[in-house]
């Protein structure tokens, strides 16, 4: 069992040198995230979906809705960076979003379908980016951190794997499948 349930695949470690081949790998991981999530939750009961992946953590249900929220924001950030010169993006409170009461009413299929369609568009965007495009940047208001799109692609490939692992490691620990 992983010592830190928050990071079942480890924390994101930004690569220092990202090649076009690396970007292709990130694109494939982003492309496959919705299907991996669907397979991960296949056959789970409502009670299991409402189980936190760690003490004081989100439920499997909240994790899936969070990925949809997060990846929508990331997709929009790509658009900003591609159409503006180093824009300052809008941050959001992911914890507050995940805890909005309506989230428990939304069927998971809605977020999974959203992710499937969003990721299809995102993959088209990523595949059509030039080398120059992949070096475009945006500024996050928390600490004025500068993000380069090629690194953001790596981060969101990791993000999908990270949260999928939250669900699969919960299933494994609980012996559900």
In short:
With 177 residues, the chain is mostly helical. It has helices at 20-41, 46-49, 60-83, 94-98, 108-127, 131-134, 149-174; strands at 137-140, 145-148.
What is the strand and helix layout of this fold?
Layout: H1 20-41, H2 46-49, H3 60-83, H4 94-98, H5 108-127, H6 131-134, E1 137-140, E2 145-148, H7 149-174
Antiparallel strand pairs: 1-2
Keywords summarizing the entry:
7 helices; two-stranded antiparallel ribbon; 177 residues; 5% strand; mainly alpha
Order of helices and strands: HHHHHHEEH
Secondary structure category: mainly alpha
Oligomer: single chain
In the predicted model, the low-confidence regions spanning at least 5 consecutive residues are none
How would you portray this structure in words?
The structure is a single chain. A hairpin with a 4-residue loop joins β1 and β2 (about 145-150). The model has no long low-confidence stretch (mean pLDDT about 95). The protein is globular. The two termini are about 15 Å apart. The protein has helices spanning about 20-40, 45-50, 60-85, 95-100, 110-125, 130-135, 150-175, and strands spanning about 135-140, 145-150. By secondary structure, the protein is mainly α. Strands 1-2 form a two-stranded antiparallel sheet.
């Amino acid at each position: 069992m992983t010592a830190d349930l928050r990071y079942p695949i480890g924390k994101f470690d930004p690569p220092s040198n990202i090649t076009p081949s690396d970007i292709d790998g990130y694109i494939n991981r982003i492309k496959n995230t919705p299907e991996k999530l669907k397979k991960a939750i296949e056959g789970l009961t409502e009670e299991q979906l409402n189980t936190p992946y760690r003490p004081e953590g989100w439920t499997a249900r909240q994790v899936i809705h969070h990925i949809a929220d997060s990846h929508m924001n990331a997709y929009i950030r790509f658009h900003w960076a591609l159409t503006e010169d180093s824009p300052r993006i809008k941050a959001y409170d992911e914890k507050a979003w995940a805890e909005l009461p309506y989230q428990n009413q939304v069927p998971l299929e809605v977020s999974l379908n959203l992710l499937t369609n969003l990721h299809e568009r995102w993959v088209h965007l990523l595949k059509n980016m030039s080398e120059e495009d992949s070096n475009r940047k945006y500024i996050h208001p928390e600490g004025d951190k500068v993000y380069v799109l090629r690194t953001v692609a790596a981060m969101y490939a990791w993000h999908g794997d990270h949260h999928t692992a939250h669900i699969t490691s919960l299933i494994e620990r609980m012996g559900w499948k």
